Every structure is written in C-alpha cells, then in structure tokens.
Amino acid sequence: MGTSADIGDVEVGDLVLLEERRQLAQISLVASENYSSPIIRRFEGSIFADKNAEGYPGNRCVAGCEYADQLERLAIERAKSAFSCEHANVQAMSATIANFAIMNELFQPSDGLMAMRLQDGGHLSHGAPFHASGRKFRWCFYGVSVIDEQLDYDEVRSIAIENRPAAIICGGSSYPRLIDYEKMYEIAQEIDALLWVDLAHTAGLVAGRAIPSPFPYADIVTTSTHKTLRGPRGGGLILCKQEMAEKIDRAIFPGLQGAPKMDLIAARAVLLAEVQTARFGEYARAVVRNAKALEGGLLEAGASLVSGGTSSHLLLLNLSKCNTTGREVELLLSEAQVIANKNPIPFDTLPPSKAGGLRIGSAALTTRGFDEAQFFELGILVGKVVMSIKSKEMIVDLMSFVERNTQGLPLFNQKWVA
Ligand SMILES: *Cc1c(COP(=O)(O)O)cnc(C)c1O
C-alpha cells in the first residue's frame, strides 16, 4: 500500500494505513478473527458490488442478472460440496441475521427454543434477553457441568424433555470443546425437535476435516464466514437438508433481507473453493495443533483454563484465582501488542464489562504462519503475564516476543496460498 493520497481520500486513507500498520505490528489472539486470502480480498469490492440481484437465481426482481445468477449458483454448488450437504443459501448478511431470519420464519412466539446459556459459551443471537431473538421467543437453556465445565448431555436431555422445545440449538462463541452432534440428535429425535447447529466458530475446522461434521445429524446449520472459515466478514451461510430448502430461502428473502451483496457472494464463492483444497485441510489441522501448543504453554506457566483445555481453536482462561479480571488482562496484553478479548466464564460472578475470563484462539496467527513452537512460547509468556498481573514485569518479555516474531511477517502467509 502507498500513501493515503494514493487511496483517494486523505482522511479515510490515513485511517486505512494506520489500521494496516496496527494489524501487522500486533498479534491477534481474538478467537473470532482471521485474515482472508488476497484472492478473496480482490473479489470483495469487485464490480458485482453495485448490482441489484434481489431474489434468487432464475427468479429476480430486476433484469440484468444473468452473470449474478451464474455466480450465485456457483457459490451454492461449492457450499454444498464443501460441507457435503443437500442445500445451501449464501445470501445472509451475517450469521446473526441468518439465525434471526430462520427463527422468524420457522417458529411462532409460543414455540419453545433451546440453546446453550450465554455465560457457558452460547451466543447472544440464541435468546439473550437484550437480543431480538430473546424478546420474541420462549427460551430454555442448558449449560456446562460444575464438575468438568463441559456439556452434560444427561442434563441437556432432561431440560429438553421438561420444556419440549421446537428446536435445539447447539454451537457457541466461547465453548472450547467439541459438541457430540450424534448425542444432540438423539435428544432432538426423542422430543421431535429440529437440531440446529450454529457452526460460526468451527466451520473452518469442519470444512478442513480437522473435527467431525454436524452432518448428517443437523437439520439446519448456520455459520458466519470469517472465523476459522477464513473468509470475508459480513456473510452468513445456511446449510440444510433438501426438505427445509424452500422455507430456509424464504426466511432470508423475502422474509428478512432485501437484495444480497453480490461482490461478497463472489468472495464467498472463492472461499468455498479454497476450503476444498488440500492446503486448507493442512491449515485446519494446524489451527487445532497450534491451539494445543498454546494450551501446553499456558498450563506450564500455571494458568487455569475453562474445561481444562481445548479440543478446537479456542481457549478460555479462567482468571478467578489470579485476582484480576478479563478487562484488566485485555488492557495489559494490548500494551504488549497482543490482542484478545475479555469474556465471561461459566458460573462467573463478575459483570460482563469486567468478566472473569479471557478468550483466545489460534486461527488468525496460524494464518500468519506461526508454528507449534511459537504458540507454545507465546502460551508461556501470556501465562506468565496473567500469573503475575500486578507486577507487570512479564510484559516486557511478551512485547519483545511480538516484535521478534512479527518483523516483516505478512497477514496471510504465502504457505497457505492454494
Ligand atoms: C460469531 C458468532 C455469530 C455471529 O456471526 P456474525 O456473522 O458476526 O453475525 C453467530 N453465532 C455464533 C455461535 C458466533 O460465535
């Protein structure tokens, strides 16, 4: 990138340059961040951005959609093949919108819905009282066990039988462990409920075959495209069985959205080819291996992790015994150029604005090319900062690690170019 004047608007251009410099100099451990490939970035903002293609291929509200139709059909075919599913909708503007559109179309306010409790790792679009989903439907929640901080499927079953929800939603934002989709399916079958998997965090690991797929068990799968999936932001995918196809498409348009963003559909189509390459499978397995290495370093430094560790890309530090808060750790790590986010932990006694945990993940740094040895060292350094939070002396070592390891390092490592 050149100077801000080259970009055409000095004020905005300056901010773009500053943000680029920030991203290059810092390291992101934010579990919901990643870097999409240069090819994806090229198609985001392409000429398709200005095309109104309201409707679906072959049935649009506006003429001139012959290429938009071909593009969307291509994206749909690639999505079906990437996730081995029967139907895909690629138009949702985000996973949050996809989730609400489906609820809005498929269920009545009197229908019960069931999801993982927010504090135990769920997502706000699964019935949080301050979210539209929470206001419109009747919710019941399941959570993790006090013993191992993992899902207790017997408890999920008894809550399901007691409340008889129309759908069981699983998948969350800060649950570090895998979900047993087969068990969830059996519970849903028992009460004749739909099984709906929100795969926003782990879609990339599933597409790369690094962890088990929710298919054939799930009736509906929703996901964002920018987390482990490593695609452009502002995108939601809905994957489902053929029998649900018509209702799902209606849920998005005309149910909730207007015209889709066709340049983003182009970028998503590129993504959905990338995720089917052998190289992407290597990336997905590296993300999981690297999270394990990070776990190893953190535990070696004496830090405590919710559920004892991770089986995915995500880890949740429990700070309750360190006499600190997620907010305090988040701020201190930022000083060392390490970016992460405060997050509630199961049975948290602190308000969400302080939070008893810190959520971290391995996807973004894996995309930058960090290996297991670097993740292990980083785990030790972050662990030491957390364990000696009041003295602040460990921050210097962390800062120099970041400086040494980001020198000249691009955001998207050449080794992942398919
Ligand atoms: C991040 C996340 C979402 C929201 O995704 P957006 O595309 O940013 O709206 C939805 N559900 C879960 C479980 C998430 O973790």
Comma- or semicolon-separated keywords:
418 residues, Aspartate Aminotransferase, domain 2, Aspartate Aminotransferase, domain 1, 2 domains, seven-stranded mixed sheet, 14 strands, binds pyridoxal-5'-phosphate
Summarize the topology.
Elements: H1 4-7, H2 10-25, E1 27-28, H3 38-43, E2 55-56, E3 59-60, H4 66-83, E4 87-89, H5 95-106, E5 112-116, H6 132-136, E6 138-142, H7 153-163, E7 167-170, H8 181-190, E8 194-198, H9 203-207, E9 220-224, E10 236-240, H10 245-252, H11 262-274, H12 278-300, E11 314-318, H13 326-335, E12 338-339, E13 341-343, E14 357-361, H14 363-368, H15 372-387, H16 395-406
Parallel strand pairs: 1-12, 5-6, 5-7, 7-8, 8-9
Antiparallel strand pairs: 2-3, 4-10, 9-10, 11-14, 13-14
Helix pairs in contact: 4-11, 5-10, 7-8, 12-15, 15-16
